[in-house]
Design brief:
The chain is mainly α and about 250 residues long. Helix content is about 75%, strand content about 0%. The chain has twelve helices and two strands; from the N terminus they run H-H-H-H-E-E-H-H-H-H-H-H-H-H. Strands 1-2 form a two-stranded antiparallel ribbon. The longest helix has about 35 residues. It is globular, with a radius of gyration of 18 Å. It starts with a helix and ends with a helix.
Length: about 250
């Protein structure tokens, strides 16, 4: 198996996600609020997967030493640069999570759940406890729990697979079109979120997506068992993403 073959094997599950009714349900600014208030947790936990890969596939300890495949180092560090320190139109830099949070504030969405969660872990509360105390849907808790557990304890190929196949390119273009419709009614409230979506589509389609598939090939190589673990992890991530969208739809 290789990255391309894994993409093909996951195609049915991804098609289900791309046609989830949640996208059709976002028709107004209040609908978008509900979407963002759940989805922000997926934006946040994505960074833990990325930083886990950076720790495993590049050298992040002292003294520095050349470590791992140079091409993979380049891929990971390029993705980290884009996701953690992207350049905004005004020349400043922010992570995509911070950009999303800013978009929530502009749109009038409630950030209290994600803010309280981050405040708790910043004060030393284990993420499991902070998540259990968060007033979010159980499906959202399951999604974040799986991502963080894989990031901390999964094999490298499992982390790479969840990162690669559970990422934000499961938000289809038709959702962007709906956000554009909402923007026409509330142009001063959705501009930041529209920029976030456009930036993700640009990076995932043109840069990060192909980079991540290349990483999968290097991480798994010709190890059949590694590819099996990667496939199982990716399938579980897509299943939990489906439940995450179910949680959004329920709200």
């Amino acid at each position: 198996m290789n990255g391309t073959a894994l993409v093909e094997s996951l195609a049915p599950a991804r098609e289900q996600l791309l046609h989830h009714p949640v996208y059709q349900s976002v028709r107004s600014l209040p609908d978008l609020h509900r979407f963002m208030e759940v989805h922000v947790f997926a934006v946040w936990d994505f960074m833990s997967l990325l930083k886990s890969l950076q720790q495993r596939l590049t050298c992040t300890t002292l003294p520095w030493r050349p470590m791992g495949d140079p091409d993979v180092r380049g891929l990971i560090n390029a993705i980290v640069m884009g996701e953690e320190s992207d350049t905004l139109p005004d020349g400043s830099h922010q992570s995509h999570f911070e950009l999303y949070h800013r978009a929530m504030t502009q749109a009038g969405a409630n950030t209290s759940a994600i803010d309280a969660f981050l405040a708790a872990i910043s004060q030393g509360t284990p993420w499991q406890e902070a998540l259990a105390n968060s007033p979010i849907h159980p499906h959202v808790q399951d999604f974040v729990t799986y991502s963080l557990t894989i990031a901390e304890h999964g094999t490298t190929e499992e982390v790479a697979a969840v990162f690669t196949f559970g990422r934000e390119d499961v938000i289809p273009d038709m959702f962007s079109a709906m956000v554009t419709d909402i923007q026409q009614d509330a142009p001063d409230q959705v501009a930041e979120f529209r920029y976030y979506l456009d930036r993700h589509i640009e990076l995932d389609g043109d840069e990060h997506g192909p980079m991540a598939l290349r990483m999968m090939d290097v991480v798994c190589r010709d190890d059949a068992e590694a590819w099996k673990r990667a496939q199982a992890a990716a399938e579980r991530a897509l299943e939990l993403r489906m439940r995450l969208w179910d949680a959004v739809l329920a709200q």
